[in-house]
């Protein structure tokens, strides 16, 4: 690619000025009627608009043979150079403004644990020009042109709208669903035993905390497609805001099979990857390789999409003696819960009649018992969690990679290559040491920085195998240095 300098598409100015007007309009109403205040406000508005135009005019991006240069000279001069060899991915996002004006947003990420969740370069260009630049950069990255966003590809994941809706409903955290259910229960309680004043508040929290996020998840993962072409993976999804990303499979540090509580009941799971530098959407730091679908489809997808992570090690659960440190921690948590709940429960029981004067007698009685009931429920859940941990947490070692299974309600199976591990730390408390047990913390590079993965209680010698395997691979020459340097 010859050196070519571009500015953001002029519609970026239109968009930013429009958003500024939306913010300023409520303020202008407050100043209405005061000529002096309106004059100051008008001057400030002119300054903001002039700054937005100047920022557009003095911000450029240059695509060179070996690097990308982003320059800005508004309040101070800033120059950012991005070598092609450091680029992890060139992502494409098209939101509603892009669709209206026929433009495309190109977001370029590099291999940086510090900044991988924020694109290094973010430019809006004409759709045809953006496609041309993306193809050229992809040729440098993957030795072949990128697929066109509009091109219909055969996805490896055979998904329906039902899968997308289910992913939005039960593919997220089960704890969030429990919170949403608690809000609905409280709304019903408020409507029956109170004057209804808190019903609208809890319904509003349910709507904003559960219904709206589910709706946006459905919009985000609609039209989901994933495929592999030679050595790189292609992702595309989005109904209103389309998202296109490509990255080399060698940039994957680990894959994660996620099984939420309700997903397990239905025999469904989803697939994610730990990769540095492919984030294109704010907060989306782990690429979803497949949304919630049948377990058999996930197994097939792993074999077809990331066969480098296919292995079936012999898995080992936590030994029986691990119950002792788990019960010790649970007992300490029980004492803390009782200590924290004792005084509030007693105080509410004594003063409940005056505190809850608007409640029915039954409602007052229920609220008096609520702190004690919450403490008992918390203690039961802690012991249940410790018991479940013994059945769930597993670890398994293979020749080139190892598996870790974690989670209580929501389960996660991580498949990690030894050559991707940055740091391993084996630690144990006093009781665990006496029993020959320990926990292991594995640090990986991810788009969120160092990603720490913690195991359950296992034999200390078994957990030490991770570090020993890394040293052995270094000695016999099988360790792949490039996997921690790309």
Q: Which descriptors apply to this entry?
A:
486 residues, seven-stranded antiparallel β-sheet, six-stranded antiparallel β-sheet, PH-domain like, 21 strands, 13 helices, alpha+beta
Explain how this protein is built.
The chain contains 13 helices and 21 strands. With about 475 residues, it is α+β, with helices and mostly antiparallel strands. The strands form four sheets. Strands 13-12-11-17-16-15-14 form a seven-stranded antiparallel beta sheet. It has a six-stranded antiparallel beta sheet with strand order 7-6-5-10-9-8. A hairpin with a 3-residue loop joins strand 3 (about 65-75) and strand 4. Helix 1 (about 10-30) packs antiparallel against helix 2 (about 35-55), helix 5 packs across helix 7 and helix 10 (about 325-355) packs antiparallel against helix 11. The protein is globular, with a radius of gyration of 27 Å. The model has no long low-confidence stretch (mean pLDDT about 80).
